[in-house]
Every structure is written in structure tokens, then in C-alpha cells.
Amino acid sequence: MRAVLVGPPGAGKGTQAQILASELSIPKVSTGDIFRANVSGGTELGKQAKAYMDRGDLVPDEVTNAMVRDRLAQEDAQGGFLLDGFPRNVAQAETLNKILGDLDERLDAVLELRVDEEEVVKRLSGRRSCRNCGHVQHVDFDPPATAGVCDACGGELFQREDDKEETIRHRLEVYREQTAPLVQFYENEGILLTIEAVGSVADVTARAKAALGNRS
Ligand code: AP5
After folding, report:
1. CA of 160 to the centre of ligand 1 (A)
2. Which residue, of 27, 46, 54, 80, has the fewest CB within 10 Å?
3. Is the CB of 52 under 6 A from ligand 1?
4. For ligand 1, atom 20, which residue shows the shortest CA distance?
5. Which ligand 1 atom sits closest to the C-alpha of 142?
6. Residue 143: is its pLDDT beyond 90?
7. How far is 65 from 86, CA to CA, in rounded Å?
8. Which of 77, 82, 152, 76 is nearest to 113 (CA)?
9. How far away, in angstroms, is 14 Cα from ligand 1 center?
10. How confident is the model at residue 208 (pLDDT cuts 50, 70, 90)?
11. Rounded Cα gap, residues 10 and 121, in angstroms
12. 79-134, pLDDT tens digit by residue?
């Protein structure tokens, strides 16, 4: 399956992509995770991306598109992938069609996770991510057994720089202006599936699986 998860920050794209990709045995390709790994590693790409990310703005398309083109050309993505966080605007969606066309591939589905903005603010302000393995938890909705310690690997949990309330509000504005138009774009392409992303993580996964059904 070649699919994209789209939805506002905090909709649960990363959480669901992790579960679905593992069940489908395909890679989860998260542009946010790739950027954050580059920022931590101090690479040139990380240096280019950091200021945009800290403000909650999109990293410029030329940087992001080149990174995705390289990632999708890798061996493990040839049998399918789940994209989380890309595309983020119509220009990136058009580039993705071109990248896939060059590989003689096309998208099977775009899954929109719908959730209201106040829920997003609650989810993101309580999110904690593991510095070691990237596992994501929540102080109230998925609390770690020991405060500040990752349940998956025992690593240190930290709060993302862009998960401060003011930055979350700005990311939501960016979503409304630049990313939300993708819903109509993919509706027009006939591959849009929409689910409500509220309720437990397991409930959302069940809805996602039912919607994706036999799209591969
Ligand atoms: P990115 O990392 O993609 O951030 P985002 O889209 O804002 O999404 P998030 O990771 O914040 O949320 P999510 O939907 O994955 O939610 P999660 O599963 O973690 O991008 C970060 C930055 O990188 C961007 O601002 C930009 O600068 C740059 N960037 C990335 N891609 C780019 C692109 N294509 N172009 C340009 N720039 C780009 O869940 C959130 C919390 O909620 C967690 O704590 C989780 O435990 C909890 N949770 C999940 N599901 C539920 C549930 N059902 N009930 C209760 N809690 C839940």
C-alpha cells in the first residue's frame, strides 16, 4: 500500500502511522521525524530546517521535496509506504505525484484524520517523546509508568520545542492555510478517505483499517 496520512498537528498521524506501518510491514516515512533526526545529528539539512520547525512554519519545499524523493527511492519503500506529514501543501502533493510517476507508482489512498482544534491543543501540550527511540506518549492519555521515562525503552522523555501552546496555535494556522486544501485536492483525485480521529488510539486504528480496507 502507498498511502498518505493527513490531518492537523496532533491528530495522531504519527501514532497511527507507526501502528499501521508495522501491521502492514511497510515503512512509515515521517518528514517531521527525518527533520528532527537531522536537527539532533547537527547535519546541514537539520541546520536548514531548525528555525522553521521551532517557529512552526513549513520548511521550504525545495529542501523537503528533495529529501522525500531520496527516501522513497530507497529499497525498503519499493513495496509500499505510509507517509506521515508529507505532502503539506498542494505544490508538495503535485511533486509527490511526479516522484511516484517517475518510479512508475501511484498513491492508493489518502487518509484524513479529523479532530477539533481544542483536542489538538490538549494532545500536543501533554505530548512527550523519547530522546532515544522516538516513542510518543502523553502525560494524561498515555502516561509513562515512571514520570519522564519512556515505557518502550527506558529513555528520557522530553517535550518538543514546537509543542508550546503559542507555537501549536501557529501550526494550526499554517495547517488551515496551507495543508487543509489538500483534502479537496485528493477528493478530486478520488482517493480521499476521512475518519474521525477521536476516542482511544485503538478505536482510531480500527476506523483507519476499516477505511483503508482493500485499497492496496
Ligand atoms: P510533524 O512532526 O509532521 O508535526 P505535525 O504534523 O505538526 O504533527 P505532530 O507530530 O505534531 O502530530 P501527529 O498528528 O503526528 O500526532 P501524534 O501521533 O504525535 O512536523 C513538525 C515540523 O516539521 C513542521 O512544523 C515543519 O516545520 C516541519 N515539516 C514536517 N513535514 C514537513 C513538510 N512536508 N513540509 C515542510 N515542513 C515540514 O499524537 C499527538 C499526541 O496525542 C501524542 O502525545 C499522542 O500520544 C496523543 N494521542 C494520539 N492519538 C490519541 C488519541 N486517539 N487520544 C488521545 N491522545 C492521543
Report:
1. 10
2. 54
3. yes
4. 32
5. 46
6. yes
7. 9
8. 82
9. 6
10. very high
11. 8
12. 999 999 999 999 999 999 999 999 899 999 999 999 999 999 999 999 999 999 98
The verdict on whether 122 is a catalytic residue reads no
Question: With a 6 A CB cut-off, is 127 part of the ligand 1 pocket?
Answer: yes
Q: Does the model's pTM come out above 0.90?
A: yes
Place of cell 539539512: 45
CATH superfamily of domain region 2-115+178-213: P-loop containing nucleotide triphosphate hydrolases (3.40.50.300)
Question: Is residue 71 in contact with ligand 1, taking CB distance under 6 Å?
Answer: no
CB of 207 sitting under 6 A from ligand 1: no
Instruction: Please write the tens of the pLDDT for every residue from 157-197.
Output: 999 989 999 999 999 999 999 999 999 999 999 999 999 99
Domain boundaries, the chain: 2-115+178-213
Q: How far is the CA of 180 from the centre of ligand 1 (A)?
A: 15
State the alpha helices, DSSP H only, in the chain. Answer: 13-24, 31-41, 44-55, 61-72, 90-102, 117-125, 165-174, 181-189, 201-212
Of 114, 158, 167, 161, residue with least CA distance to 139: 158
